[in-house]
Amino acid sequence: MSSQTSVNPDLAKERKTASFDRENLTEVIYGGKESVRRRRYLQNLAIQDRYLQSFPPWWNMDRETQYDVAVKKSVYLNSLVQKLNLKNGAEMFYLKEAASNQENDPLGLHQDMFIPTIEKQGTKEQIKKYVTPAKQFKILGTYAQTELGHGTFIRGLETMATYDPASEEFVINSPTITSMKYWPGSLGKTCNYVILMAQLYTKGKKMGIHAFVVQIRSLQDHKPMPGVTLGDIGNKLGYEGMDNGFLMFNNYRVPRDAMLMRYAKVERDGTYVAPRNAKIAYGSMVYIRALIVGDMGRSCAQASTIATRYSAVRRQTEIRPGGPEPQVIDYQTQQEKLFPMIAASYGLYFTGIFMGLEYNRVTADIEKGNLEEMQSLHALAAGLKALSSDIASDGIDKLRRACGGHGYTNASGLGKIWANITPACTYEGENTVMYLQCARYLVKVYALVATGKQLPGFMSYLNRSGKQQSSLTQALNMEDFVDLYEHTAARLIKVVAIRLQALLKSGTSVEEARNLCGVQMVQAAKMHSYAYTVRTFNAVIQARASDPNVAKALTSLCQLFAVNGILQRLGDFLQDGYLSGQQAAMLADKQLALFADIRPNAVALVDAFDYPDQVLGSCLGRYDGNVYEALYEYAKNSPLNKQDVLPSYYTTLKPLMSGELNFDPPTARM
Prior knowledge:
Mean pLDDT: 93
CATH topology of the domain at 110-275: Butyryl-CoA Dehydrogenase, subunit A, domain 2
Largest sheet: 6 strands, mixed
Structural class: alpha+beta
CATH architecture of the domain at 110-275: Beta Barrel
CATH superfamily of the domain at 110-275: Butyryl-CoA Dehydrogenase, subunit A, domain 2
CATH class of the domain at 110-275: Mainly Beta
Helix content: 40-55%
Oligomer: single chain
Radius of gyration: 27 Å
Low-confidence stretches: none
Number of helices: 22
Strand content: 5-15%
């Protein structure tokens, strides 16, 4: 919260209208009173830390400085984590979020991808060799998968790792310009090792994509190893504190044990031993995609906090000539922009938590040799990653525009949030391809359901049958929403499965049949992912919200999330008559009624996310609502205001006005 004692009267009034205790809702979000207390303690440590607060604001830094600051913050925060003996992942995140919210962490992939991949796919000997020094930061790694010519299509990667039994080494090459590794974060200037995803060749045969631990820079002077070419890819739309890089190899040799061999291996003589399941190597990607869902929820929450508080403070356009200007939040059109995003914030955040739990449960089964749910988790993670980043990217930009012209300035904080999360629509798998990946699995299991097989876990809804009409009424029972979403998802999966099968029977190839069903497959995957999110949102309310007033407020949000999703895809719900036209009309009316229901609680609902001003970094989203004073201070601190008269006045503007302007081509500067 802001240290200001004077709170904007409109914002103060909003907080008094809430129908629930905001603190109780904060405890629901973060898992209890003790978790909230601990979170605030760690936030305050970061906020009050003199070293962390010594850096200039990000909007006044050039790219090189942003990277330098990001490295310094990352190293310092990791030392602080060790000093505080933090072991809990959530606690580490709270500390780092408060210190560098929506900023890039050059050591993040080292901890979130490099180390976990070795732990999941390496042998005991490899874990000891690489993970121990990695956790001590004696080596720094990242995950190098995406190439200049191939990203989401992993099987199409061109980087080659050819086994040489004479020397018991792999020879790594980048055979084409498109085989260059391109985009991996922390690759450009930070790391000295990579997890390299490459095509394995042994005994003259191509064995597919496998993971290798490869040193790319000297541990003495940080220069590229002989045979390695790499660097930073240049300025981007955002992510300026991250050194996304390129990487090429020329006959670069690594020892046989550079290949991660827990599941697949190459014997000394070059004999290849296949894993029990080829997809088992994708565990790291599933883990990251699960994290992305929660990240999207948190980013939506921050953007919603900013836009909602500003909408309560901003007054504009009198309704009656000469009358008072109403708060912007009182306009129904503004509510239509704000409230579905508040609902999505909660839905995605809670779903991210559940995804993490599902990942831990299923991977524990995998460790025991049970692979039954691995593919369903992989498909769900792909679909939810795509859905959550689509909602966040589109929604946060909508919130930015809802703040009018002030939303465009960096002072709003919204542009920074959007620029940081919108790459999620393409990294870790481009979203359309992610939906298709999810859909291929859904079509596959539908064929099993058709034979009578009972599906486990969160796929079991495909086994349901019976009802011909949705039970949804004006009461908006969440069980009816879950039923409606799951019925519609099952129908869309069935439709595309039947169409795909018909194309195959007509002689169409599998690849072409999938292409001809692509749009329907995406729709089915989106509905499957949306159904899971609606179910999860409701489940969290039932499990966590013991305060009836908090439960009521959250239920209104959950209902709005479900209603909004239906109205956006109304044709899919109406097509087979399971939802009637009369019910659809009722939902359109109910959406407006939910806006009115949520309106008195809007500010309290975003306050409950409990983001201090120092974390939000927004003039518009200040807790005290003193927006205009903050914008003026921001403007005064513009680097252009360090001088009243800039050199360009003397070199160009003054000669222009005096008629003495003369361009001299040899000295003209672009």
